[in-house]
Amino acid sequence: MNEYKIDVLIVDSDPLSLKHTKEIMESNPSVSVINCVATSDHAILELIKNSPDIVFIEYPITGNAGNELIKFIQSKLTGTRVVFLSDTKEHAYAAIRSGIFNYLLKPVTQKEIEKLITKIQLSKQLSLHERINQIIEKTNGETRLKFQTTRGYLLINPEEIMYCKSEGIYTELFLTNNRVELCYLFLSKLDEILRKYNFMRISRSCMINLKYLRKVYRDNNTIVLSTDGKEYEVKGSKPAIRILSKPDSE
Hints:
single chain; Rossmann fold; 16 strands; elongated
C-alpha cells in the first residue's frame, strides 16, 4: 500500500504525558517527524516553521495564546487535524464549541493513535486525489481515466483494461500489457464509470471490456477474452452468458 507519512506536533506541559505520547508516535512507522513544545506560545512559533498533519494539544491549553493557536490552525492550516488531550471528559463540550472533534483522554493508547493516523492517511489520499482531478481527463482528444492504486495513481485509456475483478476492498484491473493493478474502487463504482466505454458486468465480481470478447461457453458459464494472441478465461453469471450467447440478429 502507498503509505503517506505523518508529521506530528505535541503541545503538552506535562513531561510524563508528553513523553508517553511521543513514545507511542515513535513506535508507529507511519510517523516521520515529531516536534514537542510545552505551551501554546511556542506551538505557534513551531507551526509557523512547519505544517504538521496532526497537532496534539493539552486541554485546557497551557500558555497565553491558546485561542490564537486554534484560530491560526483553523484559518491557516486547514489540512491539519487538531486533537485535544485531557485528563477528564468535562472539557469535551468546550472542545466541540471550538470546532475540535478529536478528544482523547490521557494517557493515550496505541490503538487510538493508530486509528487516528489511519484516518489522516486516508484524508491525505483523498485530498490528493481531488487535487489531481476527478476520475476522467482528456489529453489530446484521448480519454484517460484516473484511478488510485496501491502504488499511487494510474492514468489509463479504458481500452487498455480487459476486465475488472472484485477482490475484497480492492478491484483488480487486468490490462492489455499483461499487467495487473489493484484499484481503490468497488466494482459497482467502476461499473458506473466504465459502462459507457463498452464494458459489461457479467457477474457480481467481474466486468469485461466487450472489445476483447472472443468466445462464450454456455455449458460451464465461461467467457474467453483475447488480446495479443493470449486468451483469458473468466466466469460469468447465467443471465450474462445468455445475453452474450444470443446471435446479433436476435
